[in-house]
Amino acid sequence: MEKYAQTGWNDNIETNTVRLVGTVLGGPVFDHKVYGQAYYMIVLGIMRKSGYEDRIRLIVSERLLGGRSPQEGRVLEVHGQIRTYNKEEAGRNKLEIIVFARELKYIGKDSEHINEVILEGYICKAPIRRTSPLGREICDLMVAVNRPYNKSDYIPAIAWGMNAARCESLQVGDKVMVHGRIQSRGYRKTIEDGSHVMKTAYEVSVVRISLV
Length: 212
Hints:
Blueprint: E1 16-34, E2 37-47, E3 53-61, H1 62-65, E4 75-89, E5 92-107, E6 114-123, E7 128-131, E8 137-147, E9 151-160, H2 161-167, E10 175-190, E11 196-211
Parallel strand pairs: 3-5, 9-11
Antiparallel strand pairs: 1-2, 1-4, 1-6, 2-3, 4-5, 6-8, 6-10, 7-8, 8-9, 10-11
């Protein structure tokens, strides 16, 4: 399985940028090691104006941590990129989505939470327009953002309302610029025995989208 931290620090910075300010909810917990360097997962809580808290998973290198261990309740500012990879789960491939941290610093506890994503990539699946259980118009997108060395991150995105109507007309291969935020969303999944389990989906919520 390809791990998300094998590429260099300067890969596709302009086409895949994330800026987060939030509160540490958990971690750091060892995740994996690549070329002798350890990488750790930290869960960052970012409040929306609605009062809902997104729980975003960060991958941070031991080099970036510099011997520090961010404690729960500390507020971090993180600059990085969205990374995706396939993980086998119950015999099926599942798309995993994380934020790969490039810069990290501690800031004041009263700092306003920030969640900003900018992506430049290509529509790689036909958009799907649907109506939510609450009656809102939604359009599901998949945006491929290229990396060096013939790699790409396949990033799910969701557009709402008027953006959903605009996105429905996008074609596979269209190059787009997306401004939005990365969000976590809980949902209930029915498994083979008919019971239900709670899962978490991660995606980019579209604020603005335009053809490039």
